[in-house]
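pinning this so it doesn't scroll away 📌
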Amino acid sequence: MTTQKISRRTLISQGGALAAAGVVLAACGSESSGLARVGLAPSTTALPEAHVSDVVLLRTAQSVENLAVAALTDPVMGKGNSATKAAIEVFVAGHRANLTALAPLVAERGGTGFDKPNTRMMKNYVAGAVALIEDSDQQEADVIAFAHALEGVVAATYQAFVSWTSEPALRAAMMSLAVKPSYYAVALAQMVSPGSKGISPGVDEAGNPVVSALPTKYGSLASFEATIGKVTEAGARTVVSMETPSLNSLEY
C-alpha cells in the first residue's frame, strides 16, 4: 500500500473533474433537470386560507383587552405602591368596559366572542414579563414600566385595526375604544417621567429612550419596550419588546 499526499490543489482539480463528469452522465442518462434526492418526500397539506374579516379584528381586539385584564390583575402587579395599585384598578375597569362594548359589535356581525387573552401575545410577552417582575429587585418601577408598554400596545392595536377595518362605522368604534388605553398610557408615562409637557424627544442627550406622555404627534405603531427584571451579569436589564397583533396572532 502506498501513501499519496493530497494537497488542496489536487482536491480542487480532481473534484472539478468529477463534478464535470457527473454533469455529463446526468445529462445523458436522464431528461430530468431536478435535484437528486434520497427517499420519498412526505406529502404536504396546504394551510387553510385565513380571511381577515371585521369579525376577526373584533375578536382579536377582545383578546387584547382580555390580555390587559389578565396581566394587570396578576398578583405580581400588586407590587407597586398604593397610587399605582389604585391606577391599575381604574385601568382594569376601563378594559372591562371596552370588552362590554365589543361584545355586541361581534354578535351583530354574526361572530362568536373571544373571552380569553390573546394566545400568542400572552406567551411571547406577558408570561415572560411577569416572571421578570417577580424576580426583580425594582418591582415598583417595573410594574409601571410594563403597564405603560401594555397600555401602549392596546391603544396601538385599535389604531392599526382602523386601517384594516372595512366597515366605516366600525372604524369610528375602533377609534373610540382606543381612547381609554391611550389615556392610561399617558397617565403611566407621567408616573415614570413626571412633569413632561407637549411632545417630548424620543431620546435624551445620551441616546437613551425617554418615556414621555406624547412621544410623537401621532400614535406610534412601533414596538413598545419595557426595561424590567434583575440586572444581568453583563450589567444590563431585560428589554421586553411588545408589538401589536400581526397575521399570526389574530384570533380567527
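📌 and the second one:
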Amino acid sequence: MRDPTSPWRPRRSWWSAVPLWCAVYLAAIACATFVPQQGWNPDFGPVVPHDSFPADCSLCHTGGDWHTLRADFAFDHARETGVPLLGAHAGAGCLLCHNDRGPVAQFAAQGCGGCHPDPHLGRLGRNCADCHEERSWYPREVITLHDRTRFPLVGAHAAAACFRCHPGAQVGNFAGASSVCVHCHQADFARTANPNHAVVGFSTDCETCHLPVGWQPARFAHPASFPLTNAHAGRLCAECHTTPNSFTGLSADCVTCHNDDFIAASEPNHGAAGFSTDCAQCHDTRTFRRASWPHPGAFPLTFAHAGRRCTECHVGQVYSGTSGDCSSCHLDDYQATRNPNHAAAGFGLDCRQCHNTMGWRGASGHPTSFPLENAHQRACTACHQGGVYTGLNPACASCHLAAYNATTNPPHVAFQMGLNCEQCHGTVRWGQGSWTHRFPIQGGPHGNRACFDCHNNPANRLQFSCIDCHEHRQSEMANKHDEVSGYVWASPNCYACHPNGTH
C-alpha cells in the first residue's frame, strides 16, 4: 500500500499504456472529481472540498506543480462569497477556515467562538467584539471597559499590567481579583517604616490615607483641632512626632515645636519683652517671620506706620507706656521743617492737624474759609511771607494787586473795575476771566474789538461811543432815522434804541 501522506502520482508503466486521447480524458476527470485526499500536501492542512470549484484546475494551480498556486492567483472573497475579509482575516490562510471540520457557514453562525477558542472560559460573555476587533486580537479600550466594573482603573492602577491584579491574565483568566487594597498592597503595608503602619495599628484600608494617583504622599486627615495648613502641610510626620511610631498625646501648643524660634527672636526680643508663648497671637502658619500682632486701636498702624519694625518706635524693648503723640517720634521732623518753619510759626505739636500717615510731605488742613484749590496749591511761603501765618487778609488784591494794575485787556484801573477778583476770575488760571459784557461783543460787527474802540474817552473809560465808528456817519444816520421821533445823534440815544447792537 502507498504512503497516504505522499502526493499521489500514477505509475509510469500504467500511464504509458493508455492512448494519448484517453490519458487526457482521464486526467481531466481526475482533476475535477477524483483527486484523493492523500494527494494534498500535508503542510497545507486538511483537504478543502473542491466539489463546487470550477473544473478548470489551471485557474488556480500551475501546470507543473500540483501543490503551488499560480503567481497571479487572486480570489475576490467578497464578490464570490458575499463575505468580505477585513483586518487580520484578509491575510489568514484559506485552510484556517476552509478545512474538513465541516461547512464554514456552520462555524460562522457561532460568531467568533466558532473559530477562536474562548480563553476566558465563558466568564466574559460570548460577544468578543466588546473587547476585540478584526484588525488585531489585542484588546482595545481596556481602561474604558474596566470602568464598567466595580474597580475603575485610575492613576497608577491604569499603568499596571493586568497580571499584577489578575494572576491568570496571561492565559485569559480575569476572574477572582479583589478590590480590597490590602489584598494587593499587603507587602507595602508591612514594610512601611515611616511611620510603621503595623506597629502603630493603622487600618489596612489604604484609601483612608492614600490615593490611586500615587502611593506617596499620603493624605492622612489630621485632627480638626490642629489642621495642617500652609507651612504645616506637607511635612514629614516625624518632624513633630519625634518619638518613633508615637502619634498620641502630643501638645498642640505652638511653643512645643517653636520654643527655639521664640528664644532666638531678637526683633523684637520676645523673652525680654515678656511676650506670650502663644505664637498664634501674632503669627500664622504661612510664615513664622511675618507677624500680624493687632496694635491697639488707639494707635492703628496705617500706611507709613504699617510694616515697620517694632523697635523703630519701641526703643529699648519697651512695649508699654509708649506715648501715642506724634511728636514723641516726629519732634526732629517738626524742628527741622523750614517750609514753613513750624517752631518759628508757633505751630502746634499735634501733627495730625496737617499731616496723615500716608506721607509726611504734602500737608493739608488750610482753613475752609480759604480752601487751597487749583493754582492756590502753592508753597506756604508763597502767600505767608515772613513766617506770618495768622491775620493774613483773604482778599484777592492782597496777593494779586500787581496783576490787577498790570492788566491792559481790559485795563482794570482805567475802567475802575472792582478789586473783588472772584467776580470774573477763578483759581484755575488768572488769564481766563469770565466777566460778562452787558453789550453783546461776542459776535457780529461788534465782536473781537479792542476795548478802546468803543471806550475812546481817556478822561472817562467807562463811557462808550457809538457814533465814532467809520460806518456811522451822521448824515447817513439822519437819513435812516428821518421818521424816528426825537432822534438825536448821540451815543446814549443809539444804545437806548439798539441795546443788542442790531438794526
